[in-house]
Amino acid sequence: MRRVLVIEDEPDLAMLLERNLRDAGYEVEIAGAGDRGLAAARSRAFDLILLDIMLPEMDGLEICRRLRGEQVYTPILVLSAKSSEIDRVLGLELGADDYLTKPFSIPELMARVKAIFRRIEALAQAPRSPAPMLSHCKALVIDPAARLVTVRGRRVELTHREFDLLIHFAQNPGRVYTRAQLLDLIWGEGHEGYEHSINCHINRLRAKIERDQANPELLLTVWGVGYKFADDAGSHRG
Known about the structure:
alpha/beta; Rossmann fold; Arc Repressor Mutant, subunit A; 2 domains; five-stranded parallel sheet; five-stranded antiparallel sheet
């Protein structure tokens, strides 16, 4: 049974979320303050965290920052009354997997939750042996089956979204993708208007795989269009 942690300080909304998640067959734990939510996320394994931004004791962005800093990569769906682009981008830049602005409909929320779980299930069912290793200039090595990435011999930790983006780029070197195309490929339908979140994930990926993030050699910007993976990096499949 999937376990969901709901970190939400509005009692009525927390109860509504709990009821609908339980009706869908998920096990649910509620935390009504930021510090209690962080403690729960650290102490037990969850399949998903629904995380409000405006919380007592500790806000949701700080919780997200700390969990990702501790290499806890449980998927996080941010819930926020803040609707400005900067708040949405900041949440995604800190490692959240998705973002919903209050007020939202329960069907929309459940669709996002189910989409995250479908992606997790697809990854778990993927064959582990046939996928070849990918390497680029011997600096970047990707093991698709184990979802492991090493850069210059050092293992780097990526979120699910970051890995999905990286493997897609690496398997299609030289091909240019717009932000809208990347949203459809990695996030799926229903994320129109979230194009700026791609910028955040690209920046996070570059910080982890590039020698110099300001002068990337692998993940390149095609100005006015989108992004591509370098096609002259001497990539090969092992």
